[in-house]
């Protein structure tokens, strides 16, 4: 009997060691994400319930919204919880996950994602960087391409051959964890391209997918209202724009069916933002640092006029001043013209 117990205990210990080793290898070999969206490791370093405002969406958010500049304008703390080419259904799971640790007064959702294809090129990043839990699992089975699901559940299937690509940062994050993001989810861009003028983007309409995205937007709205959080659905400004024939009915429907939401089309405030088309754009869709600062200051002014909020008590002013100082230190460097 004792022999069997020892054998059973040895088996349990062996399995535990094996699982621990696999978990460590998974953590080591999974790419580390410090910018360009899906920065969950850094987001989770924020103090619980410390964000007044959260921003969700795609690169149109993490390249354009500078929380440190918004803090300077309004005194409100914020964070960008966005992912590359992020669809509205994926944003729903990002929101659910973010609300596990933050209780913002308002949430901004950029709605261009309503017109993205169901599957984009960044499933492995958008889902694979999420914390393990129910929201990641639901996103995996509902929003990932079927051929990606096994790798999202067992990331070593994706990354078992990354040994030659490992850096000191991979080891540091694996063993000591992420540090807080010094730019609060914003990705700094220092290139500029000459603007080619405002134009309508080519848009392949998919009515079934747009209907699916509307359901997700409705779920986002209901979740925010139920939590007592003010929803703001906005359109990021850009030279390349969703055609009015698609965007205007969407804005009208939101205003009609979501009465507690605010709708902000930033392209209608082009002059108020004051971006220079020849210097302030990284490309036709995204601002560089100079444009992002102008847009964020506009957004702060708009919030003070249309969304009166009071900063949370006990905010870490030293942290936010350091974030503002870092942004301005980076922004003081000359912009570089992009290669044609």
Summarize the SSE layout with pairings:
Blueprint (H helix, E strand, L loop, with lengths): L1 H28 L10 H4 L9 E5 L1 H4 L4 H8 L3 E5 L5 H11 L7 E5 L12 H6 L5 H10 L5 H5 L2 H4 L8 H9 L14 E2 L6 E2 L6 H20 L3 E6 L4 E2 L2 H14 L4 E4 L4 H4 L15 H18 L10 H15 L4 E2 L3
Helix pairs in contact: 1-10, 4-14, 4-15, 5-7, 5-11
Describe this protein with a few key phrases.
single chain; 340 residues; alpha/beta; five-stranded parallel sheet; two-stranded parallel sheet
Please tell me about this protein's structure.
By secondary structure, this protein is an alpha/beta fold. The strands form 3 sheets. Strands 2-1-3-6-8 form a 5-stranded parallel sheet, sandwiched between helices. Helix 1 crosses helix 10 and helix 5 packs parallel to helix 11. The longest helix is centred in the first third of the chain and has 28 residues. The protein starts with a helix and ends with a strand.
The main sheet comes to:
5 strands, parallel
Mean pLDDT: 94
Q: Calculate the terminal CA-CA distance, rounded to whole Å.
A: 76 Å
Strand content: 5-15%
Provide the low-confidence segments as ranges: none
| Shape annotation | globular
Helix share bin: 40-55%
What's this entry about, in short?
With about 350 residues, the chain is an alpha/beta fold.
């Amino acid at each position: 009997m004792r022999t069997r117990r020892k054998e059973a205990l040895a088996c349990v210990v062996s399995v535990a060691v094996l699982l621990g080793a696999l978990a460590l290898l998974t953590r080591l070999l999974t790419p580390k994400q410090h910018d360009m969206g899906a920065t969950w490791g850094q987001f989770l370093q924020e103090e619980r319930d410390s964000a007044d405002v959260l921003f969700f969406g795609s690169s149109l958010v993490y390249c354009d919204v500078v929380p440190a500049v918004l803090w300077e304008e309004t005194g409100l703390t914020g964070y960008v919880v966005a992912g590359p080419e992020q669809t509205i259904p994926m944003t729903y799971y990002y929101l659910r996950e973010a609300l596990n640790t933050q209780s913002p007064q308002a949430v901004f959702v950029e709605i261009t994602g309503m017109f993205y294809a169901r599957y984009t090129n960044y499933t492995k990043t958008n889902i694979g960087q999420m914390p393990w839990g129910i929201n990641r699992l639901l996103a995996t089975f509902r929003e990932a391409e079927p051929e990606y699901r096994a790798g999202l559940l067992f990331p070593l299937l994706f990354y078992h051959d990354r040994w030659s690509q490992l850096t000191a940062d991979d080891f540091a994050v694996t063993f000591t964890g992420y540090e807080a993001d010094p730019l609060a989810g914003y990705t700094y861009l220092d290139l500029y391209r000459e603007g080619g003028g405002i134009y309508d983007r080519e848009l392949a309409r998919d009515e079934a997918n747009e209907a699916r995205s509307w359901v997700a937007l409705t779920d986002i709205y209901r979740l925010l209202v139920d939590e007592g959080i003010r929803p703001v659905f906005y359109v990021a400004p850009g030279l390349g724009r969703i055609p009015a024939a698609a965007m205007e009915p969407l804005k009208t429907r939101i205003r009609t069916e979501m009465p507690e939401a605010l709708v902000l089309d930033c392209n209608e405030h082009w002059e108020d933002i004051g971006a220079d088309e020849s210097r302030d754009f990284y490309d036709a869709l995204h601002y560089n640092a100079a444009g992002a600062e102008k847009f964020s200051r506009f957004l702060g002014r708009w919030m003070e006029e249309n969304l009166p909020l009071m900063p949370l008590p006990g905010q870490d002013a030293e942290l936010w001043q350091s974030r503002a100082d870092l942004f301005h230190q980076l922004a003081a460097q000359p912009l570089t013209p992009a290669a044609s």
